[in-house]
TrEMBL record:
Pfam families: Glyoxalase_6 (PF18029). This is VOC family protein. PANTHER family: CONSERVED PROTEIN (PTHR35908:SF1), HYPOTHETICAL FUSION PROTEIN (PTHR35908). PROSITE patterns: VOC (PS51819). It comes from Pseudonocardia xinjiangensis. Gene3D superfamilies: 2,3-Dihydroxybiphenyl 1,2-Dioxygenase, domain 1. It comes from the Bacteria.
Length: 120
């Protein structure tokens, strides 16, 4: 078995894929109206995006009675402040709740949390 991608649902697959393409600089593999893939450099697992008409934006941090986050992405960076600025310029929002000093939680345009961190 080989893991080939993580799939994120969104109200608009193309819009969310465009955000991650700006953020990561990855190439588009497949570009269909409701399905878009981004190819990771080398042979790593990519990201895919599918349009979900019943999409509900997750709450961050989790709150009872609201849509919970089911997964998040961890993205290693060299410079936390520069990466955070880049993410905001690409269309992310820095989350108000930051549980760790050495990690920045950001929200993509569809509300999926992702974490920027500098590896030790």
């Amino acid at each position: 078995m080989t893991l080939t991608a993580t799939v994120l649902d969104a109200p608009d697959a193309r819009a969310l894929a465009a955000f991650y393409q700006r953020l990561l600089g990855w190439e588009v593999g497949t570009d269909e109206q409701h399905w878009v893939t981004l190819r990771a450099p080398g042979a790593g697992a990519g990201l895919s995006f599918q349009t979900e008409s019943a999409y509900v934006r997750p709450a961050w941090p989790a709150r009872p009675g609201e849509q919970l986050m089911l997964a998040h992405l961890d993205i290693a960076v060299d410079d936390l402040d520069a990466a955070c600025s880049h993410a905001v310029a690409a269309g992310a929002v820095v989350a108000e709740h930051q549980p760790q000093d050495d990690v920045r939680v950001c929200l993509d345009p569809a509300g999926h949390p992702f974490c920027l961190y500098v590896p030790l």
